[in-house]
Amino acid sequence: MKTALIIGITGQDGSYLAESLCARDYAVHGLVRRASMFNRARIDPLRHSEAAGQGRLTLHYGELNDLTSFRRLLRTIEPDEVYHLAGQSHVGLSFEIPEVTCQENGMGTLHLIEALRDLDQPARFYHAASSEIFGSPTDGRRQTEDTPLAPVNPYGCAKAFATQLCRVYRRAHGLFLCSGIAYNHESPRRGENFVTRKISMAAARIRAGQQAVLRLGNLDARRDWGYAQEYVEAMWLTLQADKPDDYILATGRTVSVREFAAAAFTEAGMEVVFEGSGENEIGRRRDTGATVIAVDSRYYRPVDSTALVGDPTRAKQVLGWAAKTEGEAVARLMVRAEGALLTGRPA
Ligand code: GDD
Question: What pLDDT, in 10s, does the model give residues 305-316?
Answer without folding.
Answer: 777 999 999 999
